[in-house]
Amino acid sequence: MAISVTRHVEITGPASWRHLASGFDGCDLSFWVEWGVGWPEFTETLERARQVAAAGDPLSVPEIDHGRCLVWGAGRRPFYAFHLQYPECHVFLGRGRFAGAHPNVQVSVNARALWLRGPRECVSVAESIIHRLKGFIQRVCVSRCDLAADFHVPGGLSFDYLRECLVTQANSLRPFIKDGRLQTLYVGAKSAPVQLRIYDKSAEIESRGEKTWLCEVYGTDEREDVWRVEFQLRRDFLRSMGVNGLSDLAREAGGLWRYLTDKWCSLRLPDDGNTSRRAVCGFWLAVQALAEDFGGSLRVQRLRRESQPETPERFIRRTWKGLAAYAARFGIADVDDALSHLTDHVRAAGTRAEFDRLYHGARIRLGHNDADGTHASF
Fold this sequence. Notes:
Layout: E1 3-4, E2 18-35, H1 39-54, E3 70-71, E4 82-85, E5 89-93, E6 105-109, H2 111-117, H3 119-132, E7 135-152, H4 159-165, E8 166-168, E9 173-178, E10 181-187, E11 194-200, H5 201-207, H6 214-218, E12 226-234, H7 235-240, H8 246-264, E13 265-267, H9 282-288, H10 291-297, H11 312-330, H12 335-349, H13 352-365
Antiparallel strand pairs: 1-8, 2-6, 2-7, 3-4, 4-5, 5-6, 7-12, 8-13, 9-10, 10-11, 11-12
Helix pairs in contact: 2-3, 8-10, 11-12
């Protein structure tokens, strides 16, 4: 039964809002894969690379998918020993050549790829990676997905308003407040089949400069008062709603959003003792209306966009501040002398080979595949 967390305080809900974007913000896919006869030799190569990465930073090697990915020093427990990072996703591999009761490959598609390239293309990328590694896909299911909608809400959303109007099936509510302002409201436990997060997305964009690409999705440079409504759906809930494969998700996404924003959780005015008869808040009506957007989001191919994770001006400004802090530490008051001193120390700190390795890794993280670049050897 839906419960209300009403505390009977004065409602100060948003007076206006504007929908910016809605779509998939994260997706985990589980694959049952049969690997080719060369799998034992390939896992030996993976293990050597994993051990080298465990002692330092993730690295790319030409023997592993022609250097298209980074190999990390740890996998994902308990089933996956190896971790490969591609521009679009993270791929976790088990040691066994054959899958058993559990999948032996998990792919976590990142948010940028989902927003800028679309879910269907991202799934195709994941399948292509497995095929290039000489794997034969036997079965695939969706083990987690995040559905999100972003709004420009002048003045933001207050905790008092959300607490007053929230009606939900969840049995836990946890706010994160900083400097007297709500940052995130968690509805439901982190490990629950469903968790809703309502949070200040503009604060995240400001603190994590690499997410400025979202402004391209929004079609505006507006970064203030951006709020996100995001549902994280785990396997148990998806299975109960009849979602197993990608085709199920494509068919049911709109229905999932409709159920989540009506039956599972809603914002309603405290105008009736029966929560099901309360009037839905205007802002939440706009949230509910996005069901049709999700219904077509897997079937519509998004246009590819080149994105800049961070503007050169922001990077240079941060470097300039770092130079001042460096000069202060050594008591160098002249900027030219400080630059010269820093350059000498930077050049002495590492080798060209190390720079090439770090550069290539950074390119992969930024979404570029330079398969013919310089790779580490071991």
